[in-house]
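Preliminary data (for renewal application), zinc ion complex.
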Amino acid sequence: MIVLYIILACIAVLLLIFIIRALLVKDTAAAPEPYEKPQIDLDDAVKKVQGAIRIPTISMRDETIPDKPFLDLQAYLEKTFPLFHEKAQKRVIDKYALMYRIEGSDKSLKPAMFMGHQDVVPPQEEGWKYPPFSAEIADGCIWGRGSFDMKSQLVSIFEATEMHLRQGKQPARTMYFCFGHDEEFAGEGAQAMCRVLQSEGVEFEFIFDEGMNLLDASMIGIEGPLALVGVCEKGWVNAKISVKGEAGHAAMPPKETTAVTLAKGVAKLNKHQMKARFTPAVNMLIKAVCPKAKFGFRLLMANADILRPLVKPILLRISPSVAALLRTTMAFTVLHGSDAANVMPDESYAIVNCRVNLGEKVEDVKTHMEKVLGPKYTVELQEKGQHEPTSMSDLDSFGWKMMQKSVAEVFPGGVTAPFPFVAGTDSKFYDALTHCTMKFSPHVTDAAYRAGMHNVNEYFKVSDVECDIQFYYRFMENACF
Ligand SMILES: [Zn+2]
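Predicted structure:
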């Protein structure tokens, strides 16, 4: 009996500690300042977005890039944003990548960088409600390839800057703008611009690139939208797993062909994933959301460090997108055996697309695969497209503080949270040029809205054009002007 009392007393003390820790959580985000939102001529801004979507800047391999759409877009931007082009020094790097610089008045400030991309993924041939480059407006949305990713955002960056310039202002902080032409393919444009900046010794106070959006977080008790701002990017590598054997006639197959051995290996590796971990980015995400969440969630989040072993398996099962935040992912995308149905393959291979978690290296993927698979299998990491995870942005930096402030001002009740970005952006190449990269697209979305990206019937809400311009305008005002 006494043992039971001791156990119950321990549980009660533990619970009390959990509750006290949840009550002690403090909100350290700065309070928003009231400010006057500028008037935006939305019809005019939407027309500018439509014009940009109608120029089919399809991302392609270097040797097959057609000049015309990219040159047309450059001419269109010059015509549409005359003041921007009058005030900015423009450089075209590698034929299509666009770099602009607007001189700031205070030379003691490190420059700011706003990034994006001009290209879009090729449109699917069928299934479009409206032709992909028509930029049709229907049901309060602009429809077309690139409307979401990211012609609307690109135009908003120009428009917000032009609005400031129209008021006769000069930024205090020098502003750079870099827009690559092949983000969707290889990011050669971004890399070329990065080399130029590196050779000139430019370092940025912050880099603001496309990224994740704001989400409705009312379910966990957050009143305003939750801005998930990417503060790091996972690494990327394709691994080839191959099995070699004897070719031969399919009429007399051995007990196990290379295709069978490969299938067994794939199944084994799929079962033995790389270790899930709470990276600093995930811990910071929990810390940022915790003060604003309902008490029940706060209780869990404030004690996440102690509850990790219990919480981790639950998180891994919630959804693939949550699991991707915690570990290196392995997507088995290509399986190849024989080219003919009646010929046994002498080699079978699989290509696994891996997104490498923070704190790990590309090489760790190979080590893990070899350990799980054993000597029958050959694992090779493909050089093309390979990159290590980026570093984590400094959350005590000026850029991050201005991001928190601008989110709270433009989206009342909005909360900014750091987010480990699991997809790819051009800003990963600029990692060495700043201590604060923020990957963020400032409009509220849900999964269905985001699903249009790279898909048929991609759309962007007309009201979000206003949202993007308002956000960039205020952020620039806080951070640059
Ligand atoms: Zn994009």
